[in-house]
C-alpha cells in the first residue's frame, strides 16, 4: 500500500467482540496494545502489563479476526535481553500474533534481527514510548529539537536495516512524521505524528470517546455516528482519504 501511495488504518483491540467489529469494518491492522493496561485494567501506565496478559488478550482478539494483520505489543521488560525477547515473542506468536511490536531505537537492532531471522515479523516503535515514561519525564511530544529528530530518524533506519517491517511513531511534530515516512521504505504508522505518515493508529477506547481522557491527537468517531460499527468504519475511511488527522490533532 505504501508503494502505491495508499494509506491504511490500524486500531487497537483487546477482546473477541471488538475484534469482530474491526474485522467487519475492514481495518487493515489490529494491534493488541499494552495500552490495555490503561483502558482495560485501569492502571496509570503500561508498566504493570505482563506477557500472560498480552497472550490472553491476543488469543481473544485472534478468535474474532480472520482478515487484519494481527500485531501484539511485547510488554515492559519482556525483551530486555535477546533470550527474553525470543522466548516471549514465541509465546505471543503461539497465542495468535502475526507480528510483535517493541518500543525503542537502535539499541534494539540486534533483537529485531534475531527475531526476524527466526520467522517473527517485527514492528518498531519510536517517539513517545510509553514503557519509558519515567525516563522521558512524562507523556510529552518527542523530537522537537533538531538533534533529537535526527537521532529518531537514525533509530528508525537502524530498525528497518535490522529487519523491522513496520514502525510506529508516537507524538512527534508533523514535519518529523513526514521526514520519517520519506526516509523509510517500510510503512510508518503515526499516532500524533501528523497527516503524512503511511498509516494511522488509534486506541479503540479513545476513538469511541469512552476513555477517561481524550488525547489531543485522537478523535471521537462515535460522535458523528449512531453505532460502534459505523464509527470504526468512519475511522478507517478518514485515514484512507486523508481527512484524519486534521490540524487540531497534530503537533508543531
Ligand atoms: O499500546 C498501544 O496501544 C500502542 C499504540 C498507542 C500505538 O502502542
Automatic annotation (TrEMBL):
Q: Which cofactor does it need?
A: Mg(2+)
Annotated 3-methyl-2-oxobutanoate binding lies at: 34-35, 73, 101
Keyword match Transmembrane helix: no
What GO cellular-component annotations does this UniProt entry give? cytoplasm
Q: Which GO terms describe its biological process?
A: methylation; pantothenate biosynthetic process
Tell whether Metal-binding is among the UniProt keywords: yes
Q: How many cofactor units bind, and how?
A: Binds 1 Mg(2+) ion per subunit.
Q: Which reaction does it catalyse?
A: (6R)-5,10-methylene-5,6,7,8-tetrahydrofolate + 3-methyl-2-oxobutanoate + H2O = 2-dehydropantoate + (6S)-5,6,7,8-tetrahydrofolate
**One Pfam family linked to the record:** Pantoate_transf
> What does UniProt list as catalytic?
170
What UniProt keywords are attached to this protein's entry? Cytoplasm, Magnesium, Metal-binding, Methyltransferase, Pantothenate biosynthesis, Transferase
Molecular function terms in GO for this entry?
Answer: 3-methyl-2-oxobutanoate hydroxymethyltransferase activity; magnesium ion binding; methyltransferase activity
List its EC numbers: 2.1.2.11
User: For this UniProt entry, what is the primary localization, expressed as one broad class?
Assistant: cytoplasm
Top-level lineage group = Bacteria
For this protein, the record's NCBIfam families field holds: panB, PRK00311.1
**Assembly:** Homodecamer; pentamer of dimers.
Q: Which family does it belong to?
A: Belongs to the PanB family.
Briefly, what is this protein's role? Catalyzes the reversible reaction in which hydroxymethyl group from 5,10-methylenetetrahydrofolate is transferred onto alpha-ketoisovalerate to form ketopantoate.
The molecule here is called 3-methyl-2-oxobutanoate hydroxymethyltransferase
